Amino acid sequence: xxxxxxxxxxxxxxxxxxxxxxxxxxxxxxxxxxxxxxxxxxxxxxxxxxxxxxxxxxxxxxxxxxxxxxxxxxxxxxxxxxxxxxxxxxxxxxxxxxxxxxxxxxxxxxxxxxxxxxxxxxxxxxxxxxxxxxxxxxxxxxxxxxxxxxxxxxxxxxxxxxxxxxxxxxxxxxxxxxxxxxxxxxxxxxxxxxxxxxxxxxxxxxxxxxxxxxxxxxxxxxxxxxxxxxxxxxxxxxxxxxxxxxxxxxxxxxxxxxxxx
Length: 261
Fold this sequence. Notes:
- By secondary structure, the protein is of the alpha/beta class.
- The chain has helices spanning about 20-25, 70-75, 100-105, 115-130, 150-155, 175-185, 195-210, 245, 255-260, and strands at about 1-10, 15-20, 35, 45-55, 60-65, 80, 85-90, 110-115, 135-140, 160-165, 170, 190-195, 215, 235, 240, 250.
- The protein has a seven-stranded antiparallel β-sheet with strand order 6-1-2-5-4-3-7. Strands 11-10-9-8-12-13-16 form a seven-stranded mixed β-sheet, sandwiched between helices.
- Strand 1 and strand 2 form a beta hairpin.
- It is globular, with a radius of gyration of 18 Å.
- The N and C termini lie far apart (about 35 Å).
- The model has no long low-confidence stretch (mean pLDDT about 95).
């Protein structure tokens, strides 16, 4: 059993939990994910790792209630436990395999949409811990749905917040902020975009036009998490890939978003 040591509601239908999982916390890296099951009869839920504390042996997960099982998860509280907590799964972010000196010479942009802010955070935090500053755009439908702003502000080089309705920060989509930053003279060597599929699609259309190499995370389409169910099959370039075992991160300019959607 894997006890929940902390539970917090971040926004409407969005929850954060710290879970005691020492083996996972010891080996996981930014970009990887875990699979949880509430009990023996529960569904397998793949969730990207939001944070980890190797000393305390805890993993932080963030999830949004979208169905029966995640709604059931939201009813759990500190002191309850998950029956299964499997991981780390998937491939770590490509950034963690690069030389730190090389990363310090790059201008890196992260684009996070909605709950996609959770998997962006550990990558930005890892860069910050290694002396690498990155710009971060965080988008939400409105101010009430904005999550992890303070945490992101503490590790980002520059943080730009945008809301669709203009209730907080800049008004408009994240793509408008990307265009604005480039128009203001910002130059980026790589962009990492994580969020709703439609957001990642239009981010890639823009960054391709701006000639900014872009990485996207296909974690939203994962189901089984082991490559057996085939639900996360997608075309990347001319090859068939599976988000859970080959990713979840891929070259966004090579992903066939139209077929995948």
